[in-house]
Amino acid sequence: MEQNRTAALIAGDETVLREVMQRYTGYVYTIVRNFSRGRLSTEDMEEITADVFISLWKNKANLKQQLALPPYLAAIARNHVKNRFRAMGKHAPVRQSLEELTLSDSQDLCMDAEKAEAIACLVCGLEILTEQERELVIRFYFYGEKTSDMAKALHLSDTAVRVRLYRSRGKLRRYMEERGFGDAEAVGLAR
Hints:
Layout: H1 2-10, H2 14-36, H3 42-58, H4 69-87, H5 104-110, H6 113-125, H7 131-142, H8 147-154, H9 158-178
């Protein structure tokens, strides 16, 4: 079903765009609200939410047919929020604690119980990491922060950040594999 929607978007079907907007507007708005951490007005968040779907439509030719829309929309939303903060001369806020991460959006929208289970396992797996490793993983994978920016903020070299991310990925991959989740790519550990 999701692949059919993506294929129809690529073909320029405006009806499917309206369907996607109806289905995912709440999801996108939640991403925008959570990522901006209350530092944007309601009007700004609504505008960014609309801009996400405009970007999706404008870039439909670049979509891949097997693409899952929710993660793609989430990435567009995060980028739009970052761009809005940049335009305001500010940095996008970054969550600092694991407790602030929830699976509610993923569980509601993925509809694939196995993937939701893998994500839950991954979040539990974050507990095996040191506090600094966990912070790096969250900032890099959940919020898309650049390693150079993290290095400056944490007073580390860029190489040290990359090495710690590499080692953390390995720990998480082994943790997932020990629990029967062999496809680390499915939850975003291959990067």
